[in-house]
Amino acid sequence: MGIADRREHRGNKTDTIVFPMLILISCLLLFITALALMILQVTQPNARYAWLAAVGGAMLALISVFFWLTQMPFDLTLPAWQPSTVFINPIQFHADRLSWPLALSITALTLTILLTAITRSAVTNSLTWAGTLALGGIGLLAVTADNPLTLLLVWGALDLTELVTQLRAVDGPTNNEKIVVSFSTRALGIGLLLWANIVSVAQGNTFNFQSIAPDAGLYLVAAAGLRLGVLPLHLPYSSESTLRRGIGTSLRLVSAVSSLVLLAHIPTESLTSALTPFLLGLAVIAALYGGWMWLRAPEELTGRPYWIISLAALSIISALSGSPLGAVAWGCALILVGGALFLASVQQVWLNRALLVGIWSLSSLPFSLTASAWIGRLGFFIPFIIAAQALLMAGFARHALRSTGRTTLDSQPGWANKVYPAGIILLIAFQILLGVLGWDGARQIGAWLQALLVSLLTFGLVWATPRLRILNPIRAHWVSNPAASGLSTFYSGLWIIYRALGRISDAITKTLEGEGGIMWTLLFLALFVLLLTQGTP
């Protein structure tokens, strides 16, 4: 269903029984459970039922998202802000068959993180589980945001959450500086969304996702691309963070999807610009770079930033080619396929092989999760997109079958042998479920010839990886230390210039604030008066 079809469908819902509280119920189940865990951590830090409470809240939230299907589409509108001349659009959330699969993916990821937390008992507690639940609730608000004002508020909440979490997880001024720079790039993305608002209002349009001005579409793409590290190509956060599995996975994937959802709201008619092929070219370069680095990453968590960049670039390519369905499909794959891999920390042969279902989900073959990814117009970029997608799939196959560095469940109780695999299987099952039913991108044939070529190239890369040295994994420090790459050196040079300007500003400030500050002030005042008197006739 396209953007225009969704508008018409939303206009013909007067006969539909609407339960807008369903969105609020799903979010409150996550937020209230998170609050209960925080209270338990303070009052009863050794409570044994905290994990059961966390899993129960996440499971109820997941079940409640399925109830959305009975009433979609529906809206949840909060009271309007004052003054109405400034806040034209209210805070509003909308559930339809494009936001529902993303909401389902986020709640499934939240439940899986808690189910697999038994393997991370040494580094997790009620506070980390509460953070995971809260991130899931914020993610639901992001994917159902119905106008830019609502999305801006959710982005701000996510960015502040990531900033505080990251600053508490790393040590040293250098790492803190990188986190602040990451926060600044996301803030620039918010600024671009605000600029799109200014452009739309200047043309007399009410800026919401149903009436976007034609000139504002590319600004929305640039806002999402900047936050995702694609436009321009950069790592949107520090790779030295100690946040690995668990809440680290939730933070990375939910934050990425909250930016990807913007692409699903961009009308095709607003992308007819001479700059569109240029942005497509940049996104293709990012997809190739991310896929190549992902293939050669020593292990999946080290390569996770490149997994996000590659899938984000493919989502942007889908949106620019006129396929919002494709952007949603890649967003679901980012969470479901990536989440299953990043949370699989235990060595179980049959489970590692079950992860290979993710290759089919990424392949765009008929009836797969991403079958609707390439129904737009790609033009002469098709060969490069095929290569980028094949690199992504081949890298996933290598990481899924990797056995080194994984732990065992030998020291865990017997029930853990059933709970842990159930969490991973949950994400794998939803990959299949969303491919065949439940949303507008399901049961699609798609570009089957292109998908077949991608699959053949993937098999070739998997066969050649152990035989060609250039395809072998690179050493970990070349991935974890991005300063070694030419791209990061360029951004480091810009940062050095910024710090030099900052030192000059500090020197001027200290001079004016020191003992001679009054003399300098009087001197500048005398020069100012002199200039005024000379200009007087």
Key terms for this structure?
single chain, 537 residues, mainly alpha, two-stranded antiparallel ribbon, 2 strands, globular, disordered N terminus
Structural account:
This protein is an all-alpha fold. It has one domain (3-484). 63% of the residues lie in helices and 1% in strands. It has 20 helices and 2 strands. Strands 1-2 form a two-stranded antiparallel sheet. Helix 8 (217-228) packs antiparallel against helix 11 (304-320), helix 10 packs parallel to helix 15 (382-400) and helix 11 runs antiparallel to helix 12 (324-343). The radius of gyration is 25 Å and the shape is globular. The chain starts with a helix and ends with a helix. 47% of the residues are buried. Residues 1-5, 7-18 and 476-485 have low confidence and may be disordered.
Task: Give the C-alpha Rg.
Answer: 25 Å
Helix content: 55-70%
Query: What structural category arises from helix and sheet content?
Result: mainly alpha
Describe the main β-sheet briefly.
Answer: 2 strands, antiparallel
Shape: globular
- Strand portion: under 5%
Count every beta strand, where a strand is a DSSP E run of 2 or more residues. 2
Contiguous uncertain segments of 5+ residues: 1-5, 7-18, 476-485
Q: How many domains, in number, for the residues?
A: 1
List the helices and strands and how they pair.
Blueprint (H helix, E strand, L loop, with lengths): L2 H9 L9 H23 L6 H17 L7 E4 L14 E4 L3 H17 L10 H19 L3 H22 L3 H30 L14 H12 L18 H14 L15 H20 L8 H17 L3 H20 L5 H6 L2 H6 L19 H19 L15 H21 L11 H17 L11 H5 L5 H28 L3 H18 L3
Antiparallel strand pairs: 1-2
Helix pairs in contact: 2-3, 2-5, 3-4, 3-5, 4-5, 4-9, 4-12, 4-16, 5-6, 5-9, 6-7, 6-9, 7-8, 8-11, 9-11, 9-12, 10-11, 10-15, 11-12, 11-15, 12-16, 15-17, 19-20
